[in-house]
Amino acid sequence: MSEKIKIGISIGDINGIGLEIILKTLADNQIYDYCTPIVYGTTKVASFYRKSLALGDFSFNVINRPDMASAKRPNMINCWEEDVKIEPGVANGTGGKYAFISLERAVNDLHEGQLDALVTAPINKHNIQSESFNFPGHTEYIQHRTGAADSLMFLVGEDLKVGVVTGHVPLADISRHITKEAIVSKLQLMKESLKTDFWVQKPKIAVLGLNPHASDNGLIGSEEKDIIIPAIEEANDKGVFAFGPYAADGFFGNNSHNQFDAVLAMYHDQGLIPFKYIEFHNGVNFTAGLPVVRTSPDHGTGYDIAGKNLASENSFREALFMAVSIVKRRRETAELTSNPLKISKLSKDRD
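^ that's the sequence the OP posted. Answer follows.
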């Protein structure tokens, strides 16, 4: 068995760009110096996209279990045997059905400890819905499967890290999900992730307001005064180095994010629009606060370019490398803190 980190990869929507970015990433042989990738899908669908990408010499090592994986080749676990009609760029139930089959099998192995981390290719959050998958997205499903009390959608790039209090929540419902307890929880998760997963010893976190101009001292809404400011104060009392609330437009407009290790936004688009503008080609979506490591590229299914050999694999490759790095950092942190030296007071007596 290889000692290298085993990374499970779910293929996402088979009609999207998932397999294209996976194959482009795994075609680089340098990948195998850092990890052992295991793709959950089927060689039949992979072969369709391999031909469209003209990767003639690329092939998978087909296995039944992660412990059978080759450390020097891309590995594939066939999750279904039947033939599937592939329609690049088409959003349909077939894409959702097999996206879930891939995801469920990979999460099962991750949950059982057969994988060290999971990288998920993009799904369509609408067509994947079923009796077995009734969640807004990957984040909520994996949190449910791991039994975690809370999690943080954490978008991570070279120049910006952004988390959100509310993730996949309709805009009309956001305000009622903004509570002091939710903000404090997300700030604590962000702090612990920055320390453990990214080795930022004393993270400095900016908190954005909910309303325009962060309510302008109560002229435009009361959430800042009644909820966000008390949450920041409580988080500081609990050891979180948090500041704000800041008006989102001015905060990003004058590059204030460069003064902080991370930013907590109140809702999805408030944080992800500036993140994708700044980090789109290299950003990674990381689910912080879970007992397992899960990352994904920071883009969607890309139906408009699916099957055209136009998709960039940069974000997916970064997600793969970030998963490897976080696993290593968590292991090293656990090792360093597993048997700390006892602190004893020195005697005042002098010889």
